[in-house]
């Protein structure tokens, strides 16, 4: 049980459309491969390589195109000597001409990507030199470049901040789920992640119920819904008729 993913805006360069073959297969698959960077909150920048599936008649994006990326990743312990690899799940280009000075004006101010990981704590938690920051190393893996590859990160949180004051530290060999932003190279190898959220002692949890919401009709058709109907809505589907929606009243509070 392991995963290592990144979400955010990236600038691309030197795109190249390449042909690859999986082991034991003669069927060719095409990908576009780009140079890019991981920008850290400290101002440090690390080189990376993004690969994304390329459909028939696709062409590589021009240099300096900004894209929103969701990708699996591999962060080697030897960063920056060893290259960070990103395997694109979804890549959406910001429209416009990347050669224009005002091209990035429409891009949200979100230069530091979010990293999401599920992995094992490989060493006891330690206190850093400031006396309040806690750090622990996490090893995770994901399917990158047609094989399982690892990611090495050092997760850090400041116990002096009220939101982290009562957060227990994870045990060695336990499984954690973390969300954060890259801040720098880690002294123990890989990259340092400043935590935004963490779940400790992650295990398999089975649930027989599910809760969700579905879109309802609104006066103006939009791609994104900002306000849900009061009480929420659930789809009522008849296989012989189009889907309709019924509004459920909120459950009474005890």
Describe this structure as you would to a colleague:
Helices cover 0% and strands 47% of the residues. The chain has a five-stranded mixed barrel. It has a two-stranded antiparallel sheet with strand order 13-14. The relative contact order is 0.16. The chain starts with a strand and ends in a 7-residue tail after the last strand. The chain has 254 residues and is mainly beta. It is globular, with a radius of gyration of 22 Å.
Question: What key phrases describe this protein's structure?
Answer:
mainly beta; two-stranded antiparallel ribbon; 254 residues; 14 strands; 47% strand
Query: Looking at the structure, what is the overall shape?
Result: globular
How much of the polypeptide forms β-strand, as a percent range?
A: over 45%
First-last Cα distance: 37 Å
Strand order of the largest sheet: 7-9-10-12-11
Q: What's the order of the H and E elements?
A: EEEEEEEEEEEEEE
Q: How would a crystallographer describe the biggest sheet?
A: 5 strands, mixed, barrel
Q: What is the share of helical residues?
A: under 10%
How would you state the average pLDDT, rounded? 87
- Secondary-structure-based class equals mainly beta
Query: Which value, in Å, is the CA radius of gyration?
Result: 22 Å
**Tally the helices: what do you get?**
0
Any low-confidence stretches, pLDDT <50, length ≥5?
209-218, 245-250
């Amino acid at each position: 049980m392991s995963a290592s993913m990144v979400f955010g805006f990236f600038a691309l360069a030197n795109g190249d459309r390449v042909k690859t073959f999986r082991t034991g297969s003669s069927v060719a698959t095409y990908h576009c491969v780009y140079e890019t960077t991981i920008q850290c909150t400290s101002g440090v920048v690390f080189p990376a390589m993004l690969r994304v599936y390329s459909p028939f008649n696709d062409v590589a994006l021009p240099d300096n195109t900004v894209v929103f990326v969701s990708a699996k990743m591999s962060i080697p312990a030897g960063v920056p000597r060893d290259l960070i690899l990103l395997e694109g799940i979804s890549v959406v280009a910001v429209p416009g001409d990347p050669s224009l000075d005002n091209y990035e004006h429409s891009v949200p101010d979100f230069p530091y990507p979010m990293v999401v990981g599920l992995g094992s704590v490989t060493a006891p938690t330690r206190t850093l030199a400031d006396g309040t920051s806690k750090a622990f190393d996490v090893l995770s893996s994901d399917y990158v470049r047609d094989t399982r590859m690892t990611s090495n990160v050092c997760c850090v949180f400041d116990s002096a901040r009220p939101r982290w004051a009562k957060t227990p530290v994870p045990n060695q060999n336990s499984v954690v789920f973390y969300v954060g932003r890259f801040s720098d190279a880690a002294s123990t190898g890989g990259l340092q992640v400043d935590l935004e959220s963490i779940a400790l002692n992650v295990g398999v949890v089975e649930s027989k119920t599910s809760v969700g919401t579905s879109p309802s009709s609104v006066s103006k058709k939009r791609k994104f819904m900002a306000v849900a109907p009061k009480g929420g809505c659930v789809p009522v589907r008849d296989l012989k008729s189009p889907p309709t929606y019924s509004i459920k009243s909120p459950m009474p509070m005890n």
